[in-house]
Design goal:
This protein is mainly alpha-helical. It is built from 4 helices and no strands. 71% of the residues lie in helices and 0% in strands. Keywords: Iron, Metal-binding, Oxygen transport, Transport.
């Protein structure tokens, strides 16, 4: 359970949105749970400080998650690290749009950007992260990337 989030909030991921890599799937569960918490807080009309707190947790967690994945890619000399990092940058850009809408006090824009973020994150998991997880599952010697 993530501090500050209601119990039972985490989305049960669809099988096709899993990577079958235990650590990545656990991190994705938290990340998607934070997105859902943000979405629900906005829908329920919770106070700005509550929404701001969840948004800040999502931003911090997303940055840590992406750093973790990128480190793992480097440790395993993942050949498409550049493309994967560009996808992470795109997701961070979408997260900034959520922040911008919230700061501007535009709840419709914020809700729309959260919906887009959730879709992009799930699509990212189904494509880039699953491809990376399959790469990790292949037997090979671990090579440190220079």
């Amino acid at each position: 359970m993530h501090p500050g989030l209601p119990e039972g909030l985490f989305m049960k991921q669809e099988d096709d949105a899993k990577t079958n890599h235990t650590e990545m799937d656990a991190e994705h569960k938290v990340q998607i749970g934070l997105i859902q918490a943000l979405e629900q807080s906005l829908q329920q009309g919770r106070g700005r400080s509550d929404i701001s707190s969840i948004l800040n947790q999502l931003v911090e967690y997303t940055n840590i998650h992406f750093m973790s994945e990128q480190l793992l890619m480097r440790l395993h000399a993942y050949p498409d690290i550049g493309g994967h990092e560009m996808e992470h940058d795109h997701l961070i850009e979408q997260l900034r749009k959520v922040e911008d809408g919230f700061v501007a006090g535009d709840s419709e824009m914020t809700a729309s950007e959260i919906t887009m973020l959730k879709r992009l994150v799930v699509d990212h998991i189904k494509t880039h992260d699953q491809t990376f997880a399959k790469y990790l599952a292949k037997p090979k010697d671990m090579v440190l990337a220079g």
